[in-house]
Write a structure and sequence with these properties.
The structure holds three protein chains of three kinds. Chain A is mainly α. Chain A contains 15 helices and two strands. In chain A, strands 1-2 form a two-stranded antiparallel ribbon. In chain A, helix 7 crosses helix 15, helix 8 crosses helix 9 and helix 10 crosses helix 15. The longest helix of chain A is centred in the N-terminal third of the chain and has 34 residues. The radius of gyration of chain A is 25 Å and the shape is globular. Chain B is mostly helical. Chain B has a domain of 181 residues: Orthogonal Bundle (MetI-like fold). Chain B has 16 helices and no strands. Chain B is flat, with a radius of gyration of 27 Å. The N terminus of chain B is likely disordered. Helices cover 26% and strands 34% of the residues of chain C. Chain C is elongated and about 80 Å long. The mean pLDDT of chain C is 91. By secondary structure, chain C is of the alpha+beta class. Chain C starts with a strand and ends in an 11-residue tail after the last strand. Classes of the chains: A mainly alpha, B mainly alpha, C alpha+beta. The interface between A and B is large, with 120 and 120 residues. The structure holds adenosine-5'-triphosphate and magnesium ion (MG). The site of magnesium ion has 3 residues of chain C, from helix 1.
């Protein structure tokens, strides 16, 4: 880029002509724009469909087949309680996950990064392996584990099969390897001298963690929370597998029920519900871009 | 707290009496120092034990039973290796295995690795803001709920008059008017949906690796007369060798065991097992329908074989990385 | 507080950080650990602090073994090269942290922090964030934090090496004065020998994990017990020559192809007893440049050629070759030595050192 211009004149090989450089630039933009077309088209349809009575391709159509037919009636569902119930379930899962994954990863990641104990290497290697393969393969067994947890007196009613708590707990466990790995990466980058200083100042290991180290990894916690929230909010497979009926359905499951239980499917209603579900994500997308793009980058040092 | 102080006083007293060799540290202190580490680890360990270790073992046990929704109120019936025999003699087993390899290899090479690398290289060679913008758009699929994401692709591939592809692409490029997913090329859509999501992971990791290559190195290469292509081949790629290996292996495992998009897009269809992959088979056998017969035992068998393959690959991956050498010892030793 | 290290050893799988360090530090003394990078200074200090666990050996404070005592119960304060301040706290937050952990009441904390901060000259910066301080101010905060809990032992790990040269000079004096006023036993790790020489009551010279010498600064300079100490202490460093010391007509002479010098008996007897070559050491300031060889300097004079001249300001550091043997000497600027000049040198051999080439031990002081 600009370094080319400031670089001293090349010997033998000779400079790349300005025109070729320009061509390269056009080529790069052309490629990038082409590559994002499917994504943009998908979103364009989603947005157009939510405010039209029907669509053909990307075009909104009125009853006569001409362009038009704009309506807000697709959004009537916001007055029904079912959607709010689903939203609440989504929110519960997401918040529970943020807290659960956040706590377990911030404490576990710290110990793995900074403390000496028997089994540390095994656990670290294990975490890497677990975080590499999606634990979706274990769902069959987890199904039975949840049924078992459901039989525990008192708390069973909150974390068993077909409960929001159970779904959230499973999701926390499945996201944990990634969370621990990310947080360990953030702790790895902190100064040893600072921690030593705190120990000499008289702090216990728990205090050092809570008062000195955790404040230093706040960006990491923010990134992890954001990421976990999105995963929790979007969770489909686990809630779909471990819940029955509409009472415990979260948004994605609700949406899928909308698609599979009605015939013919009202795609414009489906699109509106889909977009509605994405509102928090869009807010995150607008306000936390930098963080979103750095989620993996910050914590993946050392791998 | 008081107990801690007492123990410390205790240790002080013992220390004062004689010099205990470092090999014979007082048991209480030894236990306590590890205990605090295990305290930090407790929540994570508990979850891993319940949902990974216990679940993994349970999965293995289930694979030796004929447990299904038809008989689950009775005691578990162990049937030895019957499920395994059934799996390997299943007439569609070769097809499913082939599908899985095809799906993993193609998506990995074309998108999760190939396109990810190209995107990282291209977006880091244009002005910062522009590169940032394109990467952000590429991140969108990852943020979109899977149900909505697949819905979009279904509309893109839908038949006339609803399909977007059919509407905006000229006919000679394959816009036949029919449904492209179920009629035309289901595999193309399976791979596209997964690839558009998968590429962004590698893209982010590669980008941050590329951005941390010292600028001096690139300037020096340019001064030496290296062209764009040579810089990529001789400097950029070698400098991000580890992230490349990491993503390659990570995504292999991830693709091998994930099936959510396929479940939502084609459910393995159209027709018999056209786009069915191993992980999906396992899931469908065990959960596909709550009203028909959910064959948990048989589904578990599919899962356990795949998990074994994935674990073997993961072990190879840890070896390849020489991961144990990357683990640093903590620079504080709790007394 | 009295500190004793007895055979203190730290090793990791293959690396040895500190190897059987034995030394004692008297109450109120400031001892410098001096040595090149990687020689085990920090390792030793961290064992004293209780951060690293010794592989073998003991650490005692006032006669009590403290190997198993946690860092917070050792009554120590420590200052790090990186300052290691808590960036999310203010200056007050940093300095008061040890006291807050002791759960002292607010008024007492405020008073003690203010006293220490005033002593360090940062009394008016208490509300600042760490990021808003200069390097020198940060180091004062770090020092204040170490002092505020009134430790029995102060540990410094190269506290000044991140500061610029001028500030280093001032801080050096301040730390020394403070340490003397408060009478706190201190260990001061540095690889800067000027710092060690000017500040320390005694210096422990280390190399590759081994304690090479432990003595008062003048002794290390004038009576180095090993070749390493002789080479490491002193700037510009001592010149070394391979010579054979032999008796010629009742005189002792150090001889090689290039050199032939008369050596006083009290310096050269032991070297003469060695069969074969020994290593002779002469400090740059013990070589004079003269215009003409005087008869009085008979047997102490050699001629050489100037090959390098480095102006140091007041003096020139001149690299000289005597028939292919190199040495460096300090020459008064007014002489105006130039590269290529032939130079007459008079050696003060009554200050020469001799070492056994095998054991590298001194043939004078070992
Ligand atoms: N935690 C550790 N694990 C393994 N080796 C270590 C560890 N800490 C130090 N070492 C090794 O021990 C040796 C001594 O290191 P130490 O930090 O004590 O040197 P130092 O004298 O303080 O050097 P410097 O002047 O560079 O600070 C070095 O070879 C170092 O690599
Ligand atoms: Mg050091």
């Amino acid at each position: 880029m600009t370094t080319v211009e400031t670089a001293p004149p090349r010997p033998a090989a000779g400079p790349i002509p300005r025109s070729r450089q320009k061509m390269g630039r056009y080529f790069a933009y052309g490629f990038l724009i082409l590559s994002i077309i499917p994504i943009l088209v998908g979103y364009a349809w989603l947005i157009i469909a939510t405010v039209s009575a029907r669509t053909q391709g990307l075009l909104p159509k009125n009853a006569e087949g001409g362009i038009g037919g704009f309506t807000l009636s697709n959004w009537d569902f916001v007055f029904e309680s079912a959607i709010w119930n689903a939203m609440l379930n989504s929110l519960l899962i997401a918040v529970f996950m943020v807290i659960g994954v956040g706590l377990a990863s911030t404490s576990g990641g710290y110990a793995l990064s900074r403390m000496k104990f028997a089994g540390r290497k095994t656990f670290l290697t294990g975490t890497l392996v677990l975080h590499a393969f999606k634990a979706e393969m274990l769902l069959i067994a987890i199904f039975f584990v949840l049924r078992f947890l459901g039989d525990i007196p008192i708390i069973g009613g909150f974390i068993g099969f077909n409960t929001v708590g159970g779904v959230a707990l499973v999701m926390v466990a499945l996201e944990l390897p990634l969370g621990i790995w990310l947080m360990k990466g953030f702790f790895d980058n902190l100064s040893w001298d600072m921690e030593r200083a705190a120990l000499i100042d008289g702090a216990s290991r728990f205090r050092v963690w809570w008062q000195i180290m955790v404040p230093q990894v706040r960006p990491g916690i923010a990134a992890l929370s954001l990421f976990t929230f999105i995963v929790g909010w979007n969770a489909y497979l686990v809630p779909f597998t471990f819940t029955i009926g509409t009472k415990v359905a979260n948004m994605p499951v609700f949406l899928n029920q909308l698609i599979s239980d009605t015939a013919p499917v009202n795609w414009n209603l489906v699109a509106a519900v889909g977009l509605f579900q994405m509102i928090p994500l869009i807010i995150f997308f607008i306000f936390t871009q930098e963080l979103l793009l750095n989620i993996y980058a910050g914590g993946s040092k050392g791998t | 707290m008081t107990q801690q102080i007492e123990e410390e006083a205790d240790a002080l007293a013992r220390a004062a009496v004689g010099a205990p060799g470092p090999q014979r540290r007082p048991l209480g202190r030894r236990v306590r120092s590890t205990a605090s580490a295990y305290g930090f680890m407790a929540p994570a360990v508990a979850l891993v034990l319940v949902f990974f270790v216990a679940s993994g073992l349970l999965l293995l046990i289930l694979s030796f039973t004929d447990l299904s929704s038809a008989n689950f109120s009775r005691a578990w019936n162990f049937i030895g290796l019957d499920n395994y025999e059934r799996l390997f003699t299943d007439p569609f087993f070769p097809k499913i295995a082939r599908n899985t390899v095809f799906y993993v290899v193609t998506t990995l090479i074309v998108f999760n690795l190939g396109l990810a690398l190209v995107l990282a290289l291209v977006t880091t060679s244009i002005p910062r803001r522009a590169g940032f913008f394109f990467r952000l758009v590429w991140l969108l699929p990852r943020l979109t709920p899977s149900v909505v994401y697949i819905l979009m692709w279904q509309r893109i591939g839908a038949g006339d008059p609803f399909g977007i592809y059919n509407q905006i692409v000229p006919e000679f490029l394959g816009a036949s008017g029919g449904n492209l997913i179920f009629g035309g090329s289901p595999w193309a859509f399976v791979i596209l949906t997964n690839g558009f999501n998968g590429a962004s992971f590698g893209m982010i990791i590669f980008t941050s690796a590329l951005e941390s290559i010292p600028k001096d190195l690139l300037t020096a290469a340019k001064v030496d007369g290296a062209g764009t292509w040579r810089i990529i081949r001789d400097i950029k790629i070698p400098m991000i060798k580890w992230p490349l290996l990491f993503i390659a292996t990570y995504q292999t495992l991830s693709l091998l065991t994930s099936f959510e998009y396929i479940l939502l897009l084609t459910e393995g269809g159209p027709g018999l097992f056209t786009t069915e992959v191993w992980a999906l088979t396992s899931y469908k056998r065990a959960f596909a329908t709550y009203f028909g017969n959910s064959q948990w035992g048989y589904g578990a068998t599919w899962a356990i074989v795949l998990v074994t393959i994935a674990l073997l690959l993961a072990v190879a991956y840890v070896k390849l990385f020489r991961f144990n050498e990357l683990i640093e010892e903590p620079r504080i030793e709790n007394l | 507080m009295r500190v004793e290290l007895d055979n203190l050893t730290k090793s990791w799988d293959e690396v040895i950080g500190a190897d059987s360090i034995t030394l004692d530090i008297a109450d109120g003394e400031l001892v410098a650990f001096l040595g090149p990078s990687g020689c085990g200074k920090t390792t030793t200090l961290l064992m004293v602090a209780g951060i690293y666990k010794p592989t073998a050996g003991t650490i005692s404070f006032d006669g009590q073994v403290v190997n198993e005592v946690a860092p917070k119960d050792r009554g120590i304060g420590m200052v790090f090269q990186s300052y290691a301040l808590y960036p999310h706290m203010t200056v007050f937050g940093n300095i008061s942290y040890p006291l807050r952990l002791q759960k002292l009441n607010k008024g007492v904390i405020k008073e003690r922090v203010q006293t220490v901060a005033d002593m360090m000259g940062i009394g008016d910066l208490l509300e600042r964030k760490i990021a808003q301080l200069s390097g020198g101010q940060q180091q004062r905060v770090a020092l204040g934090r170490a002092l505020v809990k009134e430790p029995q032992l102060l540990l410094f790990d190269e506290p000044l090496s991140n500061l610029d040269a001028r500030l280093r000079l001032t801080m050096r004096g301040e730390i020394k004065r403070l340490q003397e006023d408060l009478g706190i036993t201190s260990i001061y790790v540095t690889h800067d020998q000027v710092e060690a020489m000017t500040m320390a009551d005694r210096i422990a010279v280390m190399s590759k994990g081994v304690l090479q010498a432990y003595d008062v600064p003048e002794a290390l300079y004038d009576r180095p017990k090993t070749l390493f100490v002789a080479a490491f202490v002193g700037n510009p460093p001592m010149n070394f020559f391979d010579v054979e010391v032999m008796r010629v007509n009742g005189d002792l002479r150090a001889k090689s192809d290039a050199i032939d010098l008369v050596i006083p008996h009290d310096r050269g007897e032991k070297a003469a007893a060695v069969d074969g070559k020994v290593i002779m050491g002469v400090r740059p300031e013990d070589v004079d440049v003269v215009d003409d060889a005087s008869p009085a300097a008979e047997g102490l004079t050699l001629a050489g050629e100037a090959v390098v001249v480095e102006p140091l300001g007041r003096e020139d550091l001149v690299g000289i070759s005597i028939n292919g043997v190199d040495l460096r000497v300090l020459v008064d600027k007014t002489r105006g030595v130039r590269v290529g000049d032939t130079i007459t040198l008079v050696f003060n051999t009554s200050r020469a050192q001799f070492f056994d080439p095998e054991t590298e031990a001194s043939l004078l002081w070992a």
